[in-house]
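From the shared-data thread, chain only:
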Amino acid sequence: MKFLLIVYVCINTTGDCRHPPEYPSVKNSYYECIHDGLGESYELLFGSESLFTREMINNEQLFARYTCNPIEDEGKIAT
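Structure, as tokens:
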């Protein structure tokens, strides 16, 4: 079974969440999905290529979240 990883950036004050265009992405296992979700969430907000500044994160009260949902693997999903 494969898992669909979706990483979101959310605004705490409004509850609005959006995912970047590179998501969802397919992962080979639950472990891989959780592992990558945690790391990619961090990178999205704080990584060297992040679009978010400290001021934006503070003012908008941004936070990242992710989900890992099981999907059926019928040999048609490329990783």
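Residues 30-46 form the longest helix (17 residues).
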